[in-house]
Amino acid sequence: MGSPEIERDEPVTPAGRLFLRPEMDQVINCVIGAENPFDVDALKKEITNSMMLKHPRFCSLMVRDRHGREYWRKTEIDIDRHIIILNDSLDGDNDEDAVNGYLADLSVSSPLSTDKPLWEIHLLTAHKCAVVRIHHALGDGISLMSLLLACFRRSDCPDQLPTMGSSSQPKPRNSRRRNRLWELLNIAWFTLVFVVEFILRSLWVKDRKTTISGGAGVELWPRKLTTAKFLLDDMKTVKNAIPNGTINDVLFGVISAGLSRYLDHRSPNRIQMTGVAMVNLRKQPGLQEMAELMQSKSGSRWGNKFGMLLLPVYYHKGLVGPLDYIKKAKTVIDRKKQSLEAYFSYKIGYFVMNFLGSKIACVLNYRIVCNTTFTISNVLGPGEEITIVGNPVTYIRANSTALPHAITMHMVSYAGRADLQILVAKDIIPDPKFLAKCFEEALLEMKEAAAEATK
User: Fold this and answer.
1) What's the pTM?
2) d(CA 403, CA 367)
3) Catalytic residue list
């Protein structure tokens, strides 16, 4: 008689080990608003039977061996330990302020307990929303959005899973050999320039100090969180006014214009700031099919597969028009696209983790954040309205644990809207609602300028 197969502990990936370091202990907080109060029992049943709990990462403990090496160890799930119910109303002028205040508190010194798998769901019943907390060691935004939305259904077709908005990138035309050679030279040149800059940023080169700069230790400072709200149709109108423009061009232009507006209010000086942008490295930019993500041999492997881009933002006073910000943003992003900077950042991180250890990798990553000014990410959400256990979803928003940056921004799109969560160190940026207004007004001005330009 054969003995039963014993499941072995699985090593945590290099990127996962980085996110488990105390200095970079990153938790993703995704808040899902609902039209009606949640049926708690129905929600527990849905989660218990969902793809999420069939995934080994979500039913494994993170353990360390005697050498301090991290592993995943399979365990039994007690759903009641992962669902945290808060029935009392939170402090705030309205539901949005109350929920954002709760998320801001979670973003500082609120780690997940390691005596259970590294995820939990907080049900804020008085505010009709759920806060899904998932450790970044389990996966990146694309992976986690894929798994999370497997629990949802389309409002117009309750038997079907949501479909994701597509990231429309301009398709390159076939070029002659001479043009192809020029493209290769551009790739080599821009990769060299940006990779050198990336290495210098991880060592000693840093942004000039401004009124919105963070620094070492700022990740422990108290936070405020607010939401800037955009319509995707407005962003598309602006995008269409710029030849071969993309939504990411528009987002970066809005960030540049909004920060310039804000600095006009705080400390008008001509300066350059640098943002750290998280870039998906999978072949398909949208939501991946669950089966594909969970196959270890797939090109779109589950887990953390993203690189970093350094995006310079110049504080401009008195540009000719609102669309100038988009044009300048597009020039920067197009050059970044012609380089291998994002792939280099991913590969060098993998190399350092494997050969120099997580401590050295963490120090270098921490320095890059300390030497820049802000973080920005953009994740595509469902293109249509969705439901969870029959309850219509009103919004999806995300933010993460605080970083040394005084400002971090995460945008998620959902059903024609895009919400940008702006997390700030409140002792450095005391008026985040004004900053959000700067971003919103910048997009509206760009939309008006785009409408005039296309007449």
Assistant:
1) 0.89
2) 11
3) 136
